[in-house]
Specification:
Helices cover about 15% and strands about 35% of the residues. The chain contains four helices and 15 strands. Strand 11 (about 190-195), helix 3 and strand 12 form a beta-alpha-beta unit. The radius of gyration is 17 Å and the shape is globular. The chain starts with a strand and ends in a 6-residue tail after the last strand.
């Protein structure tokens, strides 16, 4: 298990990606430790009398030369809304890096990465860190409408981008499991997914039925990050486990799905 740090970061940038998603770039005064796709941070929400628990966010990007760590924060409640109001120069306290990461694919793998909502961040991070040629990486991102998608065009150099929207305003209409790329799931050696629970369960079911390696990153409520508060318990084949310490990444064969 990797060493955990509790540190203050300065906000370098806060960029609105759309009406509900913000890119927060944080800079550390110290050299960043090695961080893997799928790991997360727990952020303290300052200056609020009603928000006591830290908020977990998957890590989106790392720049070891500039000691920056970037997150995509989607507004889901009061805590995340407060964090999207951060300004350059503000200080935030992080506990990081938390949780287990995705299994990095092997050089001969062909992989499908499926992200929805805030689950887009770890999928793009994994695409960048996979080390694979882009022709062996398909990235499928789902959202309700065109306005809910973030601009992922920069990641086209790491994989082939595909999109779905529920209203058909961008990409193929429907859910990710309806996309023509997903219909070819048997052509992949590994599938990775993060996003809404229903989406991940649908992806996992197909992968399990087809006996394809599949890892999911669960988004259970993770308040402490150390397995103390027991907010994030998930039933598994090994019993009830804390997602923040035993996950958030699980092989689907470990879960009771």
């Amino acid at each position: 298990m990797s060493k955990k740090f509790v540190e203050d970061f300065k906000v370098a940038e806060n960029i609105a990606l759309n009406s509900s998603n913000f890119l927060i770039k944080l800079v550390s005064p110290k050299k960043l430790p090695d961080i893997k796709p799928g790991q997360f941070v727990n952020i303290e929400v300052k200056n609020s009398d009603e928000i006591f628990l830290r908020r977990p966010f998957s890590i989106f990007e790392i720049d070891y030369q500039k000691n920056t760590l970037s997150l995509i924060i989607k507004i889901l409640g009061r805590g995340s809304k407060k964090l999207t109001e951060l300004k350059a120069g503000d200080t935030v306290n992080l506990v990081y890096p938390l949780g287990k990461s995705f299994t990095i694919p092997q050089s001969d793998d062909r992989i499908l990465l499926i992200g929805g909502g805030s689950g887009v961040a770890p999928m793009l991070f994994l695409a960048k860190e996979s080390g694979l040629n882009r022709e062996n990486v398909d990235i499928l991102l789902g959202a309700r409408s065109r306005e809910d998608h973030v601009d992922a065009s920069e990641y086209s150099k790491y994989g082939n981008l595909h999109f779905t929207t529920e209203d058909g305003s961008f990409g193929e209409k429907g859910f990710v499991i309806h996309h023509s790329v997903f219909q070819q799931i048997n052509s992949y050696s590994k599938v990775y997914t993060c996003g809404p629970d229903a989406m991940m369960r649908a992806v996992a079911k197909t992968a399990k039925d087809e006996d394809i390696f599949c890892e999911v990153s669960l988004e259970n409520l993770m308040a402490c990050g150390f397995g103390v508060c027991l907010c994030c318990i998930e039933p598994t084949q090994k019993g009830n486990l804390c997602v923040c310490t035993e996950g958030p990444v699980f092989n689907i064969k470990e879960l009771k799905w």
